[in-house]
Amino acid sequence: MLIESRTSSDPELAALVVAQQRELREADGGLDGQVFVPHDDARYLVGVLAGRAVACGAIQALGRDTAEIKRMYVRPAHRGQGLARQLLGALEEMALRAGHTVLRLETGSYLPGAIQLYISSGYAEIAVYGEYVDNPYSVCFEKRLPVLA
């Protein structure tokens, strides 16, 4: 998979995020109700296979050392091929290059595949934080990135 940086206004990125949001609303019974609002300060990556955007993710700074992973998504037809893990690794590298040594993320308790990906990638569950505090379906994780001396 080719991983490319894209702007928040990229139409292929927008299509991926719309699909992600639709899936999330279906998975949680429509309780989420949130719609995609691009974060101009987020840095987006898109995974491309055979010229087609099939995966996306972003990092958004929460502070000098900490960033949040946002909008992780792989189209259903391409799941189970390790693409999410590859994208997650690229997001971690991007975060390190930007000076972030801690990554946080939120996912839904109704997404066991996502939870397993994060745990198996070294993320530890933490207390729900920020905008997710009042969401009973939120599960949050954190990973300290290894810094090369």
TrEMBL record:
Pfam families: Acetyltransf_1
Positions of the N-acetyltransferase domain: 1-146
UniProt KW keywords: Acyltransferase, Transferase
Gene3D superfamilies: 3.40.630.30
GO molecular function ontology, one term from the record: acyltransferase activity, transferring groups other than amino-acyl groups
Family annotation (InterPro entries): Acyl_CoA_acyltransferase, Bact_Acetyltransf, GNAT_dom
Protein name per UniProt: GNAT superfamily N-acetyltransferase
Organism: Plantactinospora soyae
